């Protein structure tokens, strides 16, 4: 996939997610919101990434995604590939900054528990998609894209015109990445599916009168 097109889509998805959060449905958290999961994720990812880039460069090879065969023999790589960076300092700084930005908005919108469901589901699912499109690699950017996509889907169900327009732009950019075989397109697709599952209407329990009229 053309690099310039990919970068343009990346920026479109993240900016659209920010707009979707700003104008989308009401947040689940109150004024005393604390991004507990986001801060924890930054520590869990940031510390190994810092060690990899300074004192222990061998961590990348030891923990990165190395294809389905390596994952079968060393299944922990499906998770550990998220806590090291395959693009050096530029990727580490960008990925961690994006996680702080998008992660805090997503946690504000969804709440901590559902944030964890989206982040872990996307992170692990994207590794499986990566076996097809990018067998070797590492980084937390897939988690960021899953969280961003969840904000876009959440905004789509709202009535605010700006939020829905942002949703269309972001999801369209995600679709371009997916069709182009980009790892992040798959992450966004997984995040969208998880968000739709979390937003599904809940069945209402039958009342005693409803049962009597059956």
From TrEMBL:
GO biological process, one term: proteolysis
Pfam families in the record: Rhomboid
Residues in Peptidase S54 rhomboid domain copies: 73-174
Membrane topology classification: Multi-pass membrane protein
Primary residence: membrane
Protein name: Membrane associated rhomboid family serine protease
Keyword terms, alphabetized: Hydrolase, Membrane, Protease, Transmembrane, Transmembrane helix
TM stretches of this protein: 36-56, 115-132, 138-157, 169-199
Any one Gene Ontology molecular-function term assigned to this protein's record: peptidase activity
Annotated compartments: Membrane
């Amino acid at each position: 996939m053309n690099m310039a097109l990919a970068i343009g889509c990346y920026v479109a998805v993240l900016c659209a997610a920010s707009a979707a959060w700003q104008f989308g449905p009401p947040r689940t958290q109150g004024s005393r919101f604390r991004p507990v999961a986001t801060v924890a994720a930054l520590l869990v990812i940031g510390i190994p990434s810092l060690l990899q880039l300074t004192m222990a460069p061998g961590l990348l090879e030891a923990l990165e995604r190395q294809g389905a065969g390596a994952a079968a023999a060393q299944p922990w790589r499906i998770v550990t590939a998220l806590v090291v960076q395959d693009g050096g300092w530029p990727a580490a700084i960008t990925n961690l900054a994006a996680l702080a930005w998008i992660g805090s908005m997503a946690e504000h919108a969804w709440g901590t528990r559902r944030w964890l469901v989206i982040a872990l589901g996307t992170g692990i699912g994207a590794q499986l998609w990566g076996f097809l499109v990018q067998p070797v690699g590492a980084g937390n950017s897939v988690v960021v894209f899953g969280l961003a996509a969840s904000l876009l889907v959440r905004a789509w169900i709202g009535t605010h015109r700006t939020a829905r327009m942002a949703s269309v732009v972001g999801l369209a950019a995600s679709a371009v990445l997916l069709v182009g075989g980009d790892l992040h397109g798959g992450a966004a697709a997984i995040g969208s599916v998880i968000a739709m599952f979390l937003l599904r209407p809940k069945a209402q329990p039958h009342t005693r009168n409803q049962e009597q009229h059956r």
